[in-house]
C-alpha cells in the first residue's frame, strides 16, 4: 500500500495575490482619502473596510512567525538571532496601524464628522515607527571592517542629506511658516518628518551592507513601502498647506494601506529566508553598493546632486519672494555645504581604503609569488624557479665576466630510508637537510629542490676552489646532523660541482656537468664531493671523508 501524502498547510500566499491586494489597497486608500461618497454611511463603510484590511495584513505577518520564533535559530547556524523577530515586528507595525485606523473610525463615528487635524489617529500612527525601525535594524548583515561601515555610513548620509534638503524645501519650511497651524500641529508634523527620515536612513544603511539576495528583496519591499507612505504624506501635507478651509481636516494617508501590504509581503519573504536550509549569510558576497548597477549610479552621483541643487536655486529665483524665501535659501546653503563636506570625507576615506587594499593586494601577491616559487615540502626554491634563477645568474656572469658555480647534491641511500623508516621520516630528512644547507649559504646564494632527494645550490661569483670549500662544508654538516633523534638516524650526501666558464658556458651544460660529477662521487663510495671535468679534460677529486 502506497503512503498517501497529506498536503501541509503553508503560511505563505502567492505573489499574484499580493499584487492584487496592493492594487486594491491603493484604490481603497485613495477612496478613503478623497471621500467621493456624499452619504455618511459610505465613508464609514470605507473606514471599516480599511480597519479590517489592516487587521488581515497583520494576521498575514503573524501567521507562521511564532513557530519560527520558537526555533533555536536559522537553519545552519544553531543559535538564536534577531532575524526570527523581524516578521513579528513587521506584524506589530501593521497591527499598530490597524489600531490607529480603528481610533480614527471610532472618533469619526462618535463625532459624526471628519475630525480636525491633529487627531487621535495621527498620535497613534507615530507608534508604528519604533516597530518598523527595529525590524530594519535586525536584518542580518555580514561582519564588515570599520572602514567599510564608515564608508557605507557616509554614502547613506549623502542620500539622506539630499532627501532632507528636498523635504525641508517643499514641506517643512511652508509648514513652519503656516500661520493656521498651531505649535502642537507643527510639532507633530516635525515628529513625522523625523521618523520618516530615520526609517529611510536605517533602510539605506542596512541595504548598502547586505549580501543576502533574499534580504535584499525584503529591503526592496520595505523601501517601496516607505516611498508610497512618504508620497501619501506629501499629498496630505500639500492638502493641509493649500486648503482654504478654516479648520484643517484629514485622516489616513492614501498610501497607508498600500504600504502595509508591502510590509506584509516583506514579512512573508523574510519567513521564507528564515526557513531556508542555509544560514542567512549565504549568497553572493558582494555588497549592494559594490554591484555594477550601484557602481554606475555612483559615477553619476555628483552630477545628479549638482542638478538637484541647481533646480532648487532656479525655482527659488523664478518664484515671487515671500516669507519662505530666506529660510529656503538657508536650507539650500546648509544642505549643499553638508553634502559637500560628506563627499570630501567620503573621498578621503575611499582613497585611504583603496591604498590599504593595494597594500594588502601587494602582500598577497608577494605571498603567492613565494608559494609559486617554493617547494611545498622543504620551502626552498622549486625546479622551475631554479632554472629561471640559474639563467639570470649565468647571464649576469657573462656580462660581468665573473664565475658562477653550481652544486648538485643528492642524499645517499634515500630510498632505503623511505623503505625502512617510512615516507614521513623521509620528508623530515629532506626538510632538515634543506634547512641545514640554507644556514650555511650566503644571502646571494640560491638553494632549490631539483626533484626527489636532489638539491641544487647556485653560488654567484664563486670559482671552483671557493665552491669546493662550500660543498665540503655542506657535506660535513649534513653527515654530522642527527635527523631523527629517537632513531639516531644520520644521513650523508654526495655533491658534484660545475663552474662557469671553466666547466661549461650554458645553463644546461652546467647542470649536466654537476650532475655527472655527483654520480662520479656516488661511484667512488658516496659522501664525497667531485669536480666536473674542466674544458681541458682535467679532473679533481676531493678528500673522500668517510668513504
Automatic annotation (TrEMBL):
Coiled coil: 347-374
Domain GGDEF as annotated: residue spans: 402-534
PROSITE patterns named among the record's database cross-references: GGDEF (PS50887)
InterPro entries: Diguanylate_Cyclase, GGDEF_dom, Nucleotide_cyclase, Rev_trsase/Diguanyl_cyclase
Transmembrane annotation, as ranges: 12-33, 45-64, 85-105, 117-140, 152-177, 189-211, 218-240, 300-319, 331-349
Record key words, sorted: Coiled coil, Membrane, Transmembrane, Transmembrane helix
Keyword Transmembrane helix belongs to the record: yes
Name of the protein: GGDEF domain-containing protein
Source organism per UniProt: Ktedonobacter robiniae
Amino acid at each position: 500500500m502506497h503512503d498517501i501524502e497529506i498536503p501541509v498547510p503553508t503560511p505563505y500566499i502567492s505573489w499574484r495575490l499580493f499584487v492584487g491586494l496592493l492594487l486594491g489597497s491603493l484604490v481603497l486608500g485613495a477612496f478613503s482619502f478623497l471621500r467621493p461618497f456624499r452619504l455618511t454611511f459610505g465613508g464609514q463603510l470605507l473606514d471599516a473596510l480599511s480597519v479590517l484590511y489592516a487587521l488581515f495584513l497583520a494576521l498575514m505577518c503573524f501567521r507562521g512567525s511564532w513557530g519560527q520564533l520558537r526555533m533555536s535559530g536559522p537553519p545552519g547556524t544553531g543559535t538564536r538571532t534577531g532575524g526570527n523577530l523581524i516578521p513579528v515586528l513587521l506584524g506589530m507595525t501593521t497591527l499598530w496601524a490597524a489600531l490607529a485606523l480603528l481610533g480614527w473610525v471610532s472618533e469619526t463615528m462618535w463625532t459624526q464628522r471628519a475630525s480636525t487635524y491633529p487627531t487621535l489617529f495621527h498620535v497613534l500612527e507615530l507608534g508604528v515607527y519604533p516597530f518598523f525601525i527595529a525590524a530594519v535594524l535586525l536584518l542580518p548583515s555580514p561582519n564588515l571592517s570599520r572602514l567599510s561601515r564608515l564608508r557605507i555610513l557616509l554614502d547613506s548620509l549623502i542620500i539622506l542629506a539630499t532627501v532632507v534638503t528636498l523635504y525641508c524645501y517643499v514641506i517643512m519650511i511652508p509648514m513652519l511658516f503656516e500661520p493656521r497651524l498651531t505649535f502642537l500641529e507643527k510639532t507633530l508634523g516635525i515628529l513625522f518628518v523625523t521618523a520618516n527620515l530615520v526609517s529611510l536612513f536605517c533602510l539605506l544603511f542596512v541595504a548598502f551592507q547586505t549580501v543576502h539576495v533574499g534580504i535584499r528583496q525584503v529591503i526592496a519591499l520595505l523601501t517601496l513601502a516607505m516611498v508610497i507612505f512618504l508620497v501619501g504624506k506629501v499629498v496630505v501635507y500639500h492638502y493641509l498647506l493649500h486648503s482654504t478651509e478654516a479648520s484643517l481636516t484629514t485622516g489616513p494617508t492614501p498610501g497607508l494601506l498600500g504600504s502595509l501590504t508591502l510590509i506584509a509581503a516583506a514579512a512573508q519573504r523574510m519567513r521564507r529566508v528564515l526557513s531556508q536550509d542555509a544560514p542567512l549569510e549565504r549568497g553572493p558576497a558582494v555588497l549592494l553598493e559594490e554591484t555594477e548597477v550601484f557602481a554606475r549610479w555612483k559615477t553619476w552621483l555628483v552630477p545628479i546632486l549638482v542638478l538637484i541643487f541647481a533646480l532648487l536655486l532656479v525655482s527659488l529665483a523664478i518664484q515671487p519672494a515671500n516669507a519662505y524665501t530666506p529660510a529656503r535659501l538657508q536650507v539650500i546653503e546648509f544642505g549643499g555645504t553638508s553634502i559637500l563636506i560628506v563627499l570630501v570625507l567620503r573621498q578621503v576615506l575611499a582613497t585611504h581604503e583603496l591604498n590599504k587594499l593595494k597594500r594588502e593586494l601587494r602582500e598577497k601577491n608577494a605571498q603567492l609569488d613565494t608559494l609559486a616559487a617554493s617547494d611545498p615540502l622543504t620551502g626552498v626554491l622549486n625546479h622551475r624557479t631554479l632554472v629561471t634563477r640559474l639563467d639570470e645568474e649565468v647571464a649576469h656572469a657573462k656580462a660581468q665576466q665573473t664565475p658562477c658555480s653550481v652544486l648538485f647534491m643528492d642524499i645517499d641511500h634515500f630510498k632505503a630510508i623511505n623503505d625502512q623508516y617510512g615516507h614521513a621520516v623521509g620528508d623530515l630528512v629532506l626538510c632538515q637537510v634543506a634547512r641545514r644547507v640554507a644556514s650555511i649559504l650566503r644571502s646571494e646564494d640560491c638553494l632549490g629542490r631539483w626533484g626527489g632527494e636532489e638539491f641544487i645550490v647556485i653560488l654567484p661569483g664563486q670559482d671552483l676552489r671557493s665552491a669546493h670549500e662550500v660543498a665540503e662544508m655542506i657535506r660535513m654538516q649534513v653527515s654530522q646532523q642527527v635527523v631523527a633523534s629517537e632513531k639516531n638516524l644520520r644521513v650523508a650526501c654526495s655533491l658534484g660541482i660545475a663552474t662557469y666558464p671553466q666547466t661549461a658556458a650554458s645553463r644546461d651544460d652546467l647542470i649536466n656537468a654537476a650532475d655527472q660529477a655527483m654520480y662520479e662521487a656516488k661511484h667512488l663510495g658516496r659522501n664525497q664531493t667531485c669536480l666536473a671535468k674542466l674544458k681541458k679534460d682535467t679532473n679533481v677529486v676531493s678528500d673522500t671523508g668517510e668513504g
